[in-house]
């Protein structure tokens, strides 16, 4: 009987040990005790229940406690709930904490709410803080513009900017800065009387462009605009004049061709009228013998009258032949000379 009691006691002890082991396993599995100890040793107050709540909310405690330790050591007041809510919103907690520490070291006023908003807006908040401390140089592509005298000027500018933290959310990016600077350069060169004025004083471009306030509504503050390279391009004015002259020549040729076509058409029309008149003359001449014979038959024309008419025709033809012979004789000495 004692053996049975001892066996039952051993079984209960084994069951109790397994239960305790299972409970401890679940506890250590579910609760990051090591992380909690690290936080306590770093002077960060994090309760076990907060870590359990993170597990229940499907938040990785390491993603919260690690940045919390860093920002607490930097003596920046941030609550654990703020970090957790930012992580649940899809933010990058570690980047925000690094940006807050960098801003604190550089004496920049950057609250946690603004840094979180910048991060949630899709911008790199740490890079923004770094650019606030160390300005960035943006080089524009080759910008081509034409002066009033028609000479093309090509320029490259270097724009020195730094981040404006207050306008970073909702402000335009680098592409807008480059586009505005390019527009200002084109306007300034286009208002120059000659290309020589631009080549002699390229700093005039940067001064006029900088006076336009191109950083309004952007996430950056323009510190300076420097013209890195200026070069002379094509003579666009002369090229445009050549193209205009070619176009005018084509128009003149087209108008001349139109006039020639009208003249040819008019000539053909006049020839057709002449042929028509000749046909009518032949037709009328063909009717003359018929009219004469009809006049002879009807007695309106006598035989002697007809003879006299034929004699006059023969006389007229003879005079025409004599006149032609005289013309030929008078032209012969001139040909010999």
Compose a concise summary of this entry.
The protein is an alpha+beta fold. The chain has 13 helices and four strands.
Describe the protein's topology:
Elements: H1 2-30, H2 33-41, H3 48-56, H4 61-73, H5 80-88, H6 93-105, H7 112-120, H8 125-133, E1 136-139, E2 143-146, E3 151-163, H9 174-190, H10 195-200, H11 203-211, E4 220-235, H12 236-298, H13 303-336
Helix pairs in contact: 4-5, 4-6, 6-7, 6-8, 9-11
Structural account:
The protein has 337 residues and is α+β, with helices and mostly antiparallel strands. It has 13 helices and four strands. It has helices at 2-30, 33-41, 48-56, 61-73, 80-88, 93-105, 112-120, 125-133, 174-190, 195-200, 203-211, 236-298, 303-336; strands at residues 136-139, 143-146, 151-163, 220-235. Strands 1, 2, 3 and 4 form a four-stranded antiparallel β-sheet that branches. The longest helix is centred in the C-terminal third of the chain and has 63 residues, at 236-298. It is elongated and about 180 Å long. It starts with a helix and ends with a helix. The model has no long low-confidence stretch (mean pLDDT 79).
Oligomer: single chain
The chain-level structural class is alpha+beta
SSE series:
HHHHHHHHEEEHHHEHH
What share of the residues does DSSP label as strand, in percent?
Answer: 5-15%
Tally of individual helices: 13
Number of DSSP-assigned strands: 4
